[in-house]
Amino acid sequence: MTGLPAIGSAKDFFDSAIDINDFKNDGAADDEKYWKHIANKYYIASKDYINLENGYYGIQPKPVLQAFQKNILLANKEGARFARKTYPETSAAIKKELAAFLQVLPEEIIITRNATEALNIAIQGYPFKEGDEVLINQLDYFSMIEAFRLLEKRGKIKVNAFEMPLLPANEDEIVELYQKMITEKTKVILLTHVSNINGLIVPVQKITAMAKQKGIDTITDSAHALGQVSFSLPALGSDFVGMNLHKWIGNPIGAGVLYIKKERIKEMNVLFGDVNTAEDNISKLAHFGTTPFAVIMTIPDSLSFHKLMSIEKVSKRLHYLKSIWVNELKQVDKVEIVTPAELSCAIASFRIRDKKTSDVADVLFKQNNILTVGRSLGKDGCIRVTPAVYTSADDVRKFVAAVKAI
Ligand SMILES: Cc1ncc(COP(=O)(O)O)c(C=O)c1O
Fold first, then answer.
1. How far apart are alpha carbons 217 and 264 in whole angstroms?
2. 256: three-class secondary structure by DSSP
3. Distance from the CA of 37 to the center of ligand 1, in angstroms?
4. CB-based burial of residue 81 (10 Å sphere; 0-12 exposed, 13-18 middle, 19+ buried)?
5. Which one of 56, 141, 202 would you pick to mutate in the ligand 1 pocket, going by the greatest count of ligand atoms within 8 A of its CB?
6. How far, CA to CA in Å, does 371 sit from each of 70, 252, 394?
7. pLDDT 10s digits, 119-172
8. Whole-structure pTM over 0.70, yes or no?
9. Which of the residues 44, 165, 215, 404 has an alpha carbon 20 to 30 A from that of 91?
10. Top mutation candidate among 53, 112, 113, 116 for ligand 1, by most atoms within 8 Å of CB
11. Closest by alpha carbon to 389, among 324, 311, 329, 327?
12. Counting atoms of ligand 1 from 1, which one is nearest the CA of 192?
């Protein structure tokens, strides 16, 4: 015995035919019947505990899981013949489909293993010149901060960090703050589209437009945005955007995307050795070696299911689930919500005055079977709460009751 939790019967996996009629209903954010049906029919999520830590990675819907299994079997059975003869064409078609989904050109994207890889390629490949400065803040993702700090350590750039207010009143306040922090030497702004710490959604489009007027680029981390909030990649205006497909798109783990605007590719330095690919070909940045075939081959299925669910419906549902607990707990004296409810979607965070965040998360899990996660934030930290489309309003209310009891 391995001690691993049971994963359900084979029937669960293979009973996954999609009925289009299931998705025809409006799927209003508070229509529990609709969402319960979707959850029961299309998701195999553990019923042993309440998972409010869906920010780590997304549970794959059953039809996607089934496609993934088929792809694993195919790659395994066919071996090198598949990889050499069939896969190149298949992967080119997948890239085309993914680019269409993102509304950009296939020549503007590469498929990576995750957002960290995508953004490292952009950050470390950006053609910085001596004296260039970069702007970051405490709500950016630590790996991207570290990538910039690494360049700073190597003497390539200077990193300027500022404190983002946790509860900005509106988007304009955020834009003005970035504007204020820009120096004459600022070359790049790191924009974390949706913060992994408190879920704050920054107005990427507005900040990028403001920055561009000053000749400043934005490198945008949309790891948590793609599939959680509705946005148009070209409309963002950011020439460098990293995303993943295994959080809110529901793809198997191990797939990310880097978008670079066509005319910017030429100037990018390569991170993985490659001297033969043309300077203006984005493939020069994707010299990865053998990639996870089955994960990549499942991308069309995860995109199809995601489209069927509709990003508008999904976003509204996630926002609704978040609002249930935020509206309840903000009235509790000792609870401090550190997320602006209207500038966030699924993710929001809180802390309890005079209590350690790790203790609160422990009580929630050990005594209430509710999984959340502590995040570093200033001296007190916070607890991040992330429902998913298969989360019920009742489960969120159980969480509210558990926090009130603490
Ligand atoms: C804002 C943000 N950026 C980047 C990442 C990294 O994503 P990945 O683990 O897919 O590389 C995460 C992961 O949680 C994230 O929250």
1. 11
2. strand
3. 30
4. exposed
5. 141
6. 31, 21, 15
7. 999 999 999 999 999 999 999 999 999 999 999 999 989 999 999 999 999 999
8. yes
9. 44
10. 116
11. 311
12. 1
Give the number of C-alpha atoms closer than 13 A to the C-alpha of residue 347, restricted to the C-beta side: 28
Helix (H) or strand (E) holding 325: helix 311-329
For 339-384, write each residue's pLDDT tens digit. Answer: 999 999 999 999 999 999 999 999 999 999 999 999 999 999 999 9
Per-residue tokens: 41: 């029919």
Q: Which residues line ligand 1 (CB under 6 A)?
A: 114-116, 141, 143, 192, 196, 221, 223-224, 244, 256
Specify the residue for token string 């702007």.
135
Query: Residue 228: which of 249, 244, 242 has the closest Cα?
Result: 249
How far is the centre of ligand 1, averaged over its atoms, from the C-alpha of 220 (Å)?
12
Q: Which two tokens stand for residue 391?
A: 């989360």
